[in-house]
């Protein structure tokens, strides 16, 4: 591969990613889909690049991307919202994972897989992708609780996918399913990994002020997260959960009042500062760009049958997700939030990694499982991207979602919800608004908030001066 051309391509790709993000903001054309198309052109279509040509750097890059996205996603969650959202998260995660696994297994069985091979395919495709869901949640203006539920679900289902896939593959090798091992692995992955991520954040909050005195130290926090992730995975737990818990704890470290924990931290904990958060946001943008191109490169087109099965599974998962969104969404979720929850079926990193394992172990149906999984990854991400565009542009689609999800059947129900959350908007602008408030609107809202805070401070200062003048 020509080094000069590679550098030119990477530079153009970064510029293109910003152009795609601008198109997403203005025209609602999903940047994720455009990046995958670039990967498809480079890989399966013209064969210029393949995952094997990247060697070990491909899997390492994918792991780095997952760690940074989960950590940065965790920094956007608050303890208060987590306390109110954990029940909704459990309901949505468990119901959606097992329903999805069952539906996919049924499709696999109908297309010739054995029951255990079909369940393995179901476990691989039972979750949602953190690397897709978390960036999308930054774009879509859903309520804070619904956003938290979807982010936590994406991390939790990654663990469930891994545990159940490994369990079904072991069952195929030894001839029976070990339920005790499944339960033990799930508990250890969630509880022990979470504790390790929490403990790591306590330690890091104590030394971060000293680390900041070092030159060029801004990347030390992601480096420490890499250590936490690697150690957790080495111990057989979930590094993904540890990375997210680390981010959540660092974002809320100043709210911890427990005396024992304060003693461990040596006093009040120190949060990440604004400069560090901006840096992590830029890092996520870059890694996300490269990740989706890599996904496109990794997709394989072997035969039309696997493509057809992948397409069928995508639509089966979507209609199953609608059922789950209707009955297991957070109680505070309005029709708009339920619509977003119903759309979130993208598959990604966990599925791509697990897809090749049955084939590598020589299990029955391994090649079919791998090819169907890659096809489903492509179709599920493309379908989510298309749905975002349709829901934003079509009142009929919004009306259909409201009907399916049991909400207000008024075509304008989503607009009502949007105006209620952004009460500062003029009523004359209601017809020009869409149910999606993207980055430009979010920035404008932040500017309005800053102006209000500045006006409030000026009023307080004026009152203070008047009071002092009285006493003088």
Summarize the structure.
Helix content is 76%, strand content 0%. With 472 residues, the protein is mainly α.
Structure, explained:
With 472 residues, the protein is an all-alpha fold. 76% of the residues lie in helices and 0% in strands. Helix 4 (79-110) crosses helix 13 (304-328), helix 5 (115-124) runs antiparallel to helix 7 and helix 7 (144-174) crosses helix 8 (179-211). The longest helix has 33 residues, at 179-211. The radius of gyration is 24 Å and the shape is globular. Mean pLDDT is 79; it is low at 409-443.
| Count of β-strands | 0
How can the largest sheet be summarized?
none
Shape: globular
CATH fold call of the largest domain: Na+/H+ antiporter like fold
Question: Which descriptors would you attach to this protein?
Answer:
2 domains; 472 residues; Na+/H+ antiporter like fold; 0% strand; single chain
Which SSEs are present, and which pair or pack?
Blueprint lengths: L2 H25 L3 H15 L11 H18 L4 H32 L4 H10 L5 H10 L4 H31 L4 H33 L8 H15 L4 H13 L7 H7 L8 H25 L5 H25 L6 H9 L5 H7 L1 H4 L5 H28 L1 H10 L8 H9 L17 H33 L1
Helix pairs in contact: 1-2, 2-12, 2-17, 3-6, 3-9, 3-10, 3-12, 4-5, 4-7, 4-13, 5-7, 6-7, 7-8, 8-9, 8-10, 9-10, 13-14, 13-17, 15-17, 17-18
